[in-house]
Every structure is written in structure tokens, then in C-alpha cells.
Q: What sequence folds into this?
């Protein structure tokens, strides 16, 4: 091991206690100090594969970094990137947010990339409901009613995650 690696700050990963993460985002097994490589998923998030209780799990690096090194006095569930650059994996670029705060942040900064990003969902509080949903095009004011969120997703060409974020951003 290099001298630089020996000087890094390492903390045990709570959800994977056989592993630890460094302040620079490296993940290693405690028993043999083996460092694991990150992989990038199709949404651009880096993760690492570890074994917990005999099962392989992929853990997001940014979430692990925040859990280990970023205070969370309000107990918010999501580690998010301040600059929305998922390649900028440093503690100083992370912030704790609720899902609603993140959706609002994306809406304000223009980072939500929906097929029809001018649409705003109204009159529904949960993307998993089968209740009717009304969508208002903010540019034209046109209102469209759908019998369910599934019908709305299909018509807008968006997936469940995007639908949930759209709803949360409108609440």
C-alpha cells in the first residue's frame, strides 16, 4: 500500500460492517485491506459491490461518503450532489436532502429531464395510487385528465421514477 493510502481517513460502513470507506471515496474490506473498484450505473451514479450477510449488494458511493463523513442533524434520507455532477465524488459536494427538496432543487435548476418537461402533475399525492390524475401544461394552460398514474406515464412517455419526481415537484 502507498503511504498516501495509509494516511487517508477510513470509517466503517454501518450497513456493511466488514467494509470501510475513505474520505476520498475508496471502499475496502477491513480484513485484508482489499480496495474495491467503483462502477457507474446507467443513471451516472457510482456504486461498489460488497457482500453483506452472504448476499451481494451494490451501495452508492455518494451515500456511503455522506453517511460516514457528513453530519446529518435533521436525519434527511438522501445524499445529493450540490452541483448535480455525479462525477464530483467529494464530501464538500454533498448535501443531505429529503426527496421533496431534491425534486424542488432539480425543478429550480432545470436538472429534471422529462420528455415533456413543461408538464406539472396536480391533484395526486402518491405515484403508486390508481386514482385519477390531472396534468396541466404550464406553457399553454391545457388540462389533461388521466384515469391513473399508469395511463399518465404511458401518455407522457416517462417511467415510474420520473412520475414520482414530477408529482413531488408539484406538491
A:
Amino acid at each position: 500500500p502507498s503511504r498516501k493510502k495509509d494516511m487517508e481517513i477510513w470509517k466503517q460502513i454501518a450497513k456493511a460492517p466488514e467494509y470501510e470507506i475513505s474520505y476520498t471515496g475508496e471502499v475496502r474490506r477491513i480484513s485484508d485491506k482489499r480496495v474495491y473498484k467503483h462502477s457507474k450505473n446507467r443513471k451516472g451514479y457510482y456504486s461498489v459491490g460488497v457482500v453483506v450477510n452472504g448476499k451481494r449488494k451494490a451501495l452508492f458511493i455518494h451515500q456511503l461518503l455522506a453517511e460516514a463523513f457528513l453530519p446529518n442533524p435533521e436525519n434527511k434520507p438522501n445524499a445529493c450532489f450540490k452541483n448535480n455532477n455525479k462525477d464530483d465524488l467529494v464530501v464538500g459536494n454533498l448535501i443531505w436532502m429529503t426527496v421533496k427538496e431534491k425534486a424542488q432543487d432539480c425543478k429550480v435548476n432545470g436538472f429534471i429531464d422529462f420528455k415533456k418537461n413543461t408538464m406539472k402533475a396536480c391533484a395526486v399525492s402518491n405515484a403508486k395510487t390508481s386514482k385519477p390524475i390531472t396534468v396541466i401544461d404550464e406553457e399553454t394552460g391545457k388540462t389533461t385528465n388521466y384515469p391513473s398514474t399508469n395511463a399518465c406515464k404511458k401518455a407522457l412517455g416517462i417511467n415510474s421514477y420520473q412520475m414520482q419526481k414530477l408529482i413531488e415537484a408539484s406538491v
About this structure: Confidence is low (pLDDT under 50) at residues 112-129.
